[in-house]
Amino acid sequence: LIAKFSEHSHYMDSSNPERDPLLGTINDADIDISKPFTPSKDKESSYGNISTFSVVVNCIIGTGVFALPYATFSAGVPLTLITFSICSLFILVAAVWVLEILARTEGYVKGTSRGRMDRAANEITFKKYDFTSLSEVFAKLAGKISTQIVMTVYCLGCLWAYVAVFASTLSMVIFKFFVKDGTQCDVYAPGGLVLWSPCHLTYLGCIFGFGLVVMVLEIFDIAKLYWLHNFFTAYRFVAFIIMLITCIVSLCVKGPAAWGPAPSSAMDFKWAGFATLFTSSAVALNVHYNLPDAIQPMRQKRYARGVTLSAMLLSLVFFVAIGITCALTFGSNTKGLVTLNWESYTGLDGGWGKGEPQWWATVLQLVIVLFPMFNMLSIFPLIATTVGSNVEQFLPKRWIEARPRTVSVLCRWGNTILPVVLTVFVGRLEVIFQFTGLFAYVLE
Fold it and tell me: What are 106-110's contacts with CB under 8 Å, separation 24+?
């Protein structure tokens, strides 16, 4: 479907750069975009194809992947494959359409300002159009307002989940490795946390500590942190590979659901778990709304489509593999935040046998258990930047023109404070995704 769409699209024909401004060279010398849009970026604040790939991957791999194994077990592998295939098709088509719209917006705005349409002006430049601006150009005020509402609510739900994942992971790590009295701190334990217990206080401290760290990172633009995104992209794939290998070894040695308290039913077709799967899949795959911010600093925009789709397809392969192998391995013991299943990894008897952990098993355990923490540190500023640009459109134009940098940072900080406060009261991923997942499909 994507290939067919590209064949018929004048703007996406890579076989003829003369007729393909989107994939051609960048020329923003005569850009004259009118008022509501963010000022242009310097080409010095840009990055290459590898960094673009890293940023897109970082936008995709958020909290959704950590909830997919639980959703896969809840709905069963057959229903998961069907649902995931449909969701993947939707999101890939949506990504191609966003790139197409980015190119057409430039030509449309230039053409309307000059009184004539110039097809050669349809290209992605260094001029920044956020998701709300694109809606305003083609759907006027009604499109702008509807996009603002849906996108703001959805992004805040994602940021809420990021804070919850970081805090639950770090509090578990602190109790496991630094508190020697044998107690555990598990937000996902039956009954939840005991109010004002040492575990609860540690959890609250992790929430507010994370908020302070990301507020510092949000001062910088995406392009200035390209080295951080490259590092975390490599870390993500290393952690994914370790998770897959340890699960596959366990399946070969012990068989399915060896570490669950009840017989596995991961291969059943379970409609009762469809709601959990539906919302988790929507959150895991949604990335197209971040593409305007991710692509805008890219130097060689002729490769925008290839870099974007390769990052998305590679991530989708890992998502399916992680969801199915973890659901088969842990069965009914699959946790809402799947990396917590590695808390008891010992490397013995297929991986989770009883006894003192092997030294190498402790290393692998740390890589996987710390994975969500580092993941949240890298993705939170990206999403906060996206929703911050969206929130700016609610503000009076004179404020933005007077202090554009200050307004931008304050909007990002405001989008950090609200999720931090929400996580104090609700921190379970499955609850957050029930709310956020519905808006994900509306956004598509």
Answer: 106/31, 107/21, 108/137, 108/138, 109/33, 109/34, 109/137, 110/31, 110/32, 110/33
Residue 433, classed as helix, strand or coil, is helix
pTM: predicted TM-score of the whole model, two decimal places = 0.71
Distance CA 176, CA 171 (A): 9
The C-alpha atoms of residue 87 and residue 235 are separated, in whole angstroms, by 26
Instruction: Report in angstroms the alpha-carbon separations of 78 from 135, 159, 324, 343, 405.
Output: 37, 30, 10, 28, 49
- Per residue in 163-175, pLDDT (tens digit) is 988 998 898 888 8
Angle of helix 371-392 relative to helix 131-177, nearest 10 degrees, comes to 150
CA dist., res. 84 & res. 285, Å (int): 9
**What pLDDT digit, counting tens, does each position of 382-441 carry?**
788 877 877 777 787 888 778 888 888 888 898 889 899 999 988 877 778 777 766 666
Count Cα neighbours of 425 within 13 Å in the Cβ-side half-sphere.
4
**What are φ and ψ of residue 32, in 5° steps?**
-140, 75
Contacts of 40 (CB under 8 A, 6+ apart): 28, 31, 33, 125, 126, 127, 128
> Using an 8 Å Cβ cutoff, are 314 and 407 in contact?
no
Which two tokens mark 261? 């308290």
Which candidate, 221, 265, 325, places its Cα nearest to that of 74? Answer: 265
